[in-house]
Design goal:
alpha+beta; two-stranded antiparallel sheet; 78 residues; 2 strands; single chain; 1 helix
Length: 78
């Protein structure tokens, strides 16, 4: 497709992951995006509410995979 098929977004974001207990983590997922008026408000609002939910749901499914069990990661803050 051409560039006309896409809306380029300007923004930034970050993830902050903290170990709360042996079987619980806290995740802060923050994004700031400016579509510059190029998309409809209802679509932008859907992205704001649905994207974090489905991202966390997907993360939950991935970390349950056998290859991640028992692993520790230095990036997790205690």
């Amino acid at each position: 497709g051409s560039d006309r098929d896409f809306v380029r977004l300007d923004g930034f974001g970050y993830w902050q992951v903290k170990v709360v207990s042996e079987d619980e983590i806290e995740v802060i997922f923050q994004m700031q995006v400016d579509p510059g008026g190029s998309i409809k408000a209802w679509l932008a609002n859907m992205f704001v509410t649905d994207s974090p939910f489905y991202t966390m749901e997907g993360m939950r499914d991935v970390i349950k995979e056998e290859k991640y069990k028992g692993n520790t990661y230095n990036l997790l803050k205690n």
